[in-house]
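User: Please fill in residues for this 416-position structure.
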């Protein structure tokens, strides 16, 4: 019995590492399973006795500090928030994954299972892809009741974001690895067609273009970037004529922008542009400390009635969401976190650096048109990746061999 108790911390830490392998598989698929596994990770963390190590991360790890700092600032802003107590609690709960980052760092520290975590995400997206095609081309309905949008476990926007990252990651794996390349090629083609030709999501289109440019720049320098641009234009033109869903979304976007520019009172105007315009005005009216956590809906209701089709309790822009709630202070912390994530890629191996940059570009670009951190699945996944990529594991140390790999900044200088 005493031997069992003595080994409890070590067993709990090892269990946590295996739970961390399961987490990127369940996050894209099930909210309930995600909550269960995160709860189990927290319990195992308590039994592992890694408190000192966790607080050590808070003292020395800038990424952990900024993550906790952003949540703390959101919590403090509840003092002056214009939202009611229930709404404040609801929005703080949306950002709770920021609190998990230091614990994830402890879980991944010197873990020999980090590669399995990446394959867990690939397995989840492969399952999503297969079910999506079944939904779209058969009468069988798996998951969400929206077969025309080819969605399965998550909504259209979330699925497109995840599939875009999946396609990019497999593309990197295809160039860096010599194993299973035929399978990767099939999944890349299927995922790309799913995002562009089947699902009608403009966020997915934007991310495919952004990640394609990143991929071309990383592998083929500036010449590759020009080639990627030409390929994107060609693929977009062909898809526009062969995919009704793609054509519809592009036409809606162009028409919405034209109507918004012609008349702010046109009820058919692009609703996101209306939300952005109002959000910028709200931010500028409280530029330093914002209007408090959860206050977006309250502030928007001052200008747009809640029963209006243009009223949304989500600003569809993470930068606006954080800026409105916490002002310039919150934007500064969020920007510092993104910058730190970018700079830390300099110490990674070649493939890890490219994969981590893909996650970061997905977060930065996706946050321009959606509130990614407030999304349950996307917010939890990016908090997970923040620790996964930047916590040194045994495999990372062996690959690096104690030497620092070439940074992204140096690659750009060489390309120039």
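Assistant: Residues filled in for all 416 positions:
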């Amino acid at each position: 019995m005493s031997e069992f108790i003595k080994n409890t911390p070590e067993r709990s830490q090892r269990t946590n590492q295996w739970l961390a392998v399961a987490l990127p598989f369940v996050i894209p698929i099930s909210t309930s399973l995600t909550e269960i596994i995160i709860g189990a990770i927290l319990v195992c963390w308590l039994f592992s006795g890694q408190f000192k190590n966790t607080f050590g991360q808070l003292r020395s790890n800038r990424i952990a500090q900024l993550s906790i700092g952003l949540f703390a600032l959101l919590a403090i802003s509840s003092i002056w928030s214009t939202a009611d107590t229930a709404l404040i609690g609801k929005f703080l709960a949306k950002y709770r994954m920021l609190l998990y980052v230091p614990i994830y760092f402890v879980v991944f520290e010197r873990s020999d299972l980090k590669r399995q975590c990446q394959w867990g995400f690939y397995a989840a997206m492969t399952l999503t892809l297969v079910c999506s095609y079944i939904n779209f081309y058969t009468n069988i309905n798996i998951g969400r009741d929206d077969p025309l949008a080819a969605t399965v476990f998550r909504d259209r926007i979330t699925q497109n974001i995840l599939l875009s990252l999946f396609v990019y990651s497999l593309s990197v794996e295809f160039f860096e690895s010599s194993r299973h390349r035929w399978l990767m090629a099939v999944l890349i083609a299927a995922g790309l067609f799913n995002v562009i030709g089947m699902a009608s999501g403009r966020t997915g289109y934007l991310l495919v273009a952004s990640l394609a440019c990143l991929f071309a720049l990383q592998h083929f320098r500036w010449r590759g970037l020009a080639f990627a641009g030409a390929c994107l234009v060609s693929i977009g033109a062909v898809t526009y004529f062969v995919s009704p869903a793609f054509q519809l979304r592009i036409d809606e976007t162009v028409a919405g922008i034209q109507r918004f520019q012609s008349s702010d009172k046109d009820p058919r105007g692009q609703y996101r542009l209306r939300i952005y315009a109002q959000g910028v005005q709200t931010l500028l009216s409280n530029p330093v400390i914002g209007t408090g956590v959860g206050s977006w809906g309250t502030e928007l209701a001052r200008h747009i009635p809640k029963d209006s089709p243009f009223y949304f309790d989500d600003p569809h822009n993470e930068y606006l969401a954080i800026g409105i709630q916490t002002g310039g202070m919150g934007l500064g912390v969020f920007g510092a976190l993104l910058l730190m994530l970018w700079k830390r890629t300099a110490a990674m191996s070649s493939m890890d650096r490219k994969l981590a940059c893909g996650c970061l570009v997905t977060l930065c670009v996706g946050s321009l048109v959606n509130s990614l951190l407030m999304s349950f699945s996307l917010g939890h996944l990016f908090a997970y990746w923040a620790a996964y990529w930047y916590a040194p594991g045994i495999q990372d140390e062996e690959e690096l061999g104690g030497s620092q790999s070439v940074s992204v900044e140096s690659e750009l200088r060489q390309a120039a």
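For context: Residues 1-49 form one domain.
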